[in-house]
Amino acid sequence: MEELRTVIITGANSGLGFESAKKIAANKEYRLILACRNLEKAKQAQEAIIKETGNSNVERLLLDTSSLKSVEDFVEEFKNHSDSLFGLINNAGISGMHQGKSVDNVEIVMATNYLGHWYLTNLLLEKYDIKKIFNISSDMHNPPQGLKWRDVKDIFYSDNSDRTAYPYSKLSAIYFTNELQERLDKEGRNTLVNSFNPGMMQTNFAGGPMPKSRVLFVKTMMPDRFGDLDKSSTALASLMLDDSLDVKAKYFDRSVNFIDSSPLSYEIDNQKELWNYTEGFIKEWKNK
Ligand SMILES: NC(=O)c1ccc[n+]([C@@H]2O[C@H](COP(=O)([O-])OP(=O)(O)OC[C@H]3O[C@@H](n4cnc5c(N)ncnc54)[C@H](OP(=O)(O)O)[C@@H]3O)[C@@H](O)[C@H]2O)c1
After folding, report:
1. Which domain CATH number covers 195?
2. Ligand 1 centroid to 188 CA: how many Å?
């Protein structure tokens, strides 16, 4: 029998991660790893996916993306029982309403949405020839009020009092995508790295479904920002399942079509600065 294709999805117990996991698992050539911070919630998701798809190759593993130690533990555990890894969806995320520091003393939104995924991806790439990586971004990488790049240290250690942590974390997901692709290409590896914007969806993200009046407001005033959970998860799953996909370092927008991300997201100096700072940060953390 041919080997199953394993896909890891972070934050797969809810919203986009859960729906995409279900749609990928519907294809029984795939084995899903639900990488979640709450194993009880993950168990419910796992059971629901198995029941609905009939695919019993759905597993759950503990991962808290806001903790670098948790990322290391996850990778060790995964390596112990997996010889290959086909796909990775860096999806787990928290909204910009959160304030506080991670266990590693980094602003919590950046730590959860970006830093943990950076480390996770790089650790996994040390062992596996991953075929496809999707980093979940957002159109809020380019917020209506605009965004200016800052010293990375300021972004890592901000108190998020100006509520820019979320846009920076999602802009960082695009810089990470593009820089990682460039580096993997130089190494001659065949991984495809892309970012994906699901659009504004009704999930647990903002603490539960938006009131109808807000949905109507967004649909009317900001049609370009509105998304649909079913459509976006279908598109993300299709991109993972599509063997003919050969696109890289692109920003998919709520569909299997890519568009340009913001002009700021193509600033190569920022992209390099972010990578170098992150790499240095992790090295320092390891030496502690
Ligand atoms: N919803 C939107 O309007 C929207 C718009 C654009 C982009 N996005 C992006 O889409 C992605 C998925 O969000 P969603 O809308 O599906 O929201 P969601 O329903 O709240 O799902 C988020 C998932 O991330 C998990 N998570 C949060 N912090 C984590 C951590 N430290 N470690 C591991 N897992 C963690 C959550 O786990 P718990 O259940 O344990 O909290 C949950 O499984 C996010 O990256 C988000 O930024 C969402």
Report:
1. 3.40.50.720
2. 33
